[in-house]
């Protein structure tokens, strides 16, 4: 859960260019393409240039999406986020400017209205205009909102019949219920119409920019083992219970309310250094076990520092899809916290093995996924191609297989969730959306 925890993010994140004073949800701002980071410890910050235009002479090229470049709409059993393909879309549907209404509730002041955002972001398609004026709901081509269509219909009966409702959510279903029908979705889930991941890593082509032989020893000078910064001690997936069990077998320092260590928020720089300099492993434990739900805890607190993140949340396959190669450890790969601790001790005693988890550094970058460029381009794409789609949120967002569901079958409730214990298969996301090709 992110909302209202701006400071926690600042605590371990890179230093921000500008810290919006009243901004209540920094992660939304960032995920949806707000200004990003400078001065990150390991040069691993999201690139400021972002975008394909980054492929200027001299800059390393990104590995292109493995799928077809025109694969921009989600398909059944989706395995691609389609982000690069959407970023490359440059077809414009006539000269008409599409009107996009940002409906109350988020991104209040940060994103400029009008056409500016699309121009500033150097979008391939700039023929869109942002508005926050609710009166525009009677003519907007698209409404981005956290409401479902039914709620909108009740409030605003006079919406145009072809208006696209884009449902936006960065929380997991465990913390954000949803129902009703919407046309498009923008969430961290890969099978959203517009995937809005917390961070996206892109590998450089031909290993460009990759420092050849890694000379640095990331284990040097580290006297401590496992760290965790956490403030919500009540997550129902048992992450605290897991950490406490782990702590019986290896030193785990828990900072914040749920533990005994403190590192004050105002000293976030020092806290961040503490991770990189003194600790070998970081518990990037999510508050829910839901498919694809991988947050800044993993990317920012973990990968962007010189520390190996230990994942607990989404299944290992979901992490493997978005993380740099051999960059993390997953609790589900071990049959118990004790077995995990054994492995961590092994890495602790073997610098060569430990350093393998840092080989990926320099092999790619975290990119700005140009959310608003993609909204605009997809809107033009939808209009020119005539694709219609809609999601029943009840099924798509909260249906079977999305989050871990515990089915007791007479057995005692486990102390923590693990996909190893999932009673049903989670082999693919059950895409219960509807798509109509013209
Ligand atoms: C879904 O995709 C995965 C990976 O591409 C594949 O292993 C699996 O068999 C697919 N499942 C179905 C039902 O198509
Ligand atoms: C939007 O969703 C509705 C169902 O709520 C559907 O009838 C309509 O065709 C969709 N429109 C587009 C443009 O996808
Ligand atoms: C969950 O899975 C682990 C590892 O496979 C197993 O040891 C444990 O007994 C399981 N717990 C339950 C409640 O099924
Ligand atoms: C997908 O979801 C639908 C609707 O909930 C359900 O009827 C169907 O059995 C599910 N399919 C799988 C493979 O889980």
UniProtKB/TrEMBL annotation:
It comes from the Eukaryota. Its EC number is 2.4.1.-. One of its GO terms (cellular component) is Golgi cisterna membrane. Residues 1-23 form the signal peptide. Residues 98-198 form the Fucosyltransferase N-terminal domain. The keyword Cytoplasm does not apply. It is an enzyme of class 2 (transferase). It holds the Pfam family Glyco_tran_10_N. One of its GO terms (molecular function) is fucosyltransferase activity. It is a single-pass type II membrane protein. Belongs to the glycosyltransferase 10 family. This is Fucosyltransferase. It comes from Paralvinella palmiformis. The lineage of its organism: Eukaryota, Metazoa, Spiralia, Lophotrochozoa, Annelida.
């Amino acid at each position: 859960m992110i909302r209202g925890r701006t400071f926690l993010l600042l605590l371990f994140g890179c230093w921000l260019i500008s810290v919006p004073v009243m901004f209540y949800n920094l992660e939304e701002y960032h995920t949806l393409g707000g200004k990003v980071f400078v001065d990150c410890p390991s040069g691993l910050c999201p690139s400021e240039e972002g975008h394909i235009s980054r492929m200027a002479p001299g800059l390393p090229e990104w590995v292109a999406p493995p799928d077809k470049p025109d694969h921009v709409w989600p398909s059944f059993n989706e395995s691609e986020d389609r982000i690069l393909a959407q970023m490359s879309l440059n077809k414009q549907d006539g000269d008409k400017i599409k009107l996009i209404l940002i409906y109350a509730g988020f991104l209040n002041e940060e994103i400029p209205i009008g056409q500016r955002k699309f121009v500033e972001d150097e979008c391939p398609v700039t023929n869109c205009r942002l508005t926050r004026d609710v009166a525009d709901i009677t003519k907007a081509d698209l409404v981005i909102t956290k409401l479902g269509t039914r709620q909108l219909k009740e409030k605003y009966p006079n919406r145009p019949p072809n208006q696209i409702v884009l449902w936006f959510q960065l929380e997991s279903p465990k913390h954000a219920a949803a129902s009703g029908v919407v046309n498009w979705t923008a969430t961290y889930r890969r099978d959203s119409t517009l995937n809005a991941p917390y961070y996206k890593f892109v590998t450089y082509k031909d290993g460009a920019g990759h420092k050849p032989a890694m000379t640095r020893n990331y284990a040097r000078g580290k006297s401590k083992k496992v760290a965790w910064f956490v403030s919500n001690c009540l997550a129902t997936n048992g992450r605290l219970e897991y950490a406490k069990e782990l702590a019986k077998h290896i030193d785990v320092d828990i900072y914040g309310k749920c533990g005994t260590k403190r590192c004050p928020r105002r000293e976030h720089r020092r806290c961040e250094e503490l991770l990189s300099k003194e600790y070998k492993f970081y518990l990037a434990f999510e508050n829910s076990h839901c498919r694809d739900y991988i947050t800044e805890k993993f990317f920012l607190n973990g990968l962007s520092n010189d520390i190996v993140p230990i994942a607990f949340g989404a299944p290992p396959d979901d992490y493997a899809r978005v993380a740099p190669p051999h960059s993390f450890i997953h609790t589900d790969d071990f049959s118990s916290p004790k077995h995990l601790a054994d492995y961590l001790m092994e890495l602790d005693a073997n610098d060569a093995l430990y350093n393998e988890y840092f080989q990926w550094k320099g092999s790619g970058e975290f990119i700005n996924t140009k959310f608003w460029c993609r909204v605009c381009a997809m809107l033009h794409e939808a209009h020119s191609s005539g694709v219609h789609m809609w999601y029943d949120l009840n099924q798509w967002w909260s249906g079977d297989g999305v989050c871990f569901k515990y089915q007791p079958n007479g057995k005692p409730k486990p102390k923590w969730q693990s996909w190893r214990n999932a009673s049903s298969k989670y082999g693919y996301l059950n895409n219960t959306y509807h798509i109509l090709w013209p």
